[in-house]
Design brief:
Blueprint: H1 6-29, H2 33-46, H3 51-69, H4 74-87
Length: 88
Amino acid sequence: MIVMSEQGSDLHSKTEETSQLRLGINYEQQGKINDALAAYLGIIARYPDSEERQVAEERLLRLTRAFLEEKGRIHPAILVYEQLEGVL
């Protein structure tokens, strides 16, 4: 039986947070905005005290502002804000 120390568990969690953030950034760069939004919202919900959460929130809000700046894209921005409010 393998026993993982608490420090090892923290390291594993940190790797998951970083991987999830990288995934969101990759989706964003590929133009898969809905997937990026889902990845960022997942980080915010699962890792509320992490540095990755702060980065995910900044990227999420930047994408939402971009929706608002595009003519006729108010509805997606509102949906993102509502989802964000649900995880906070």
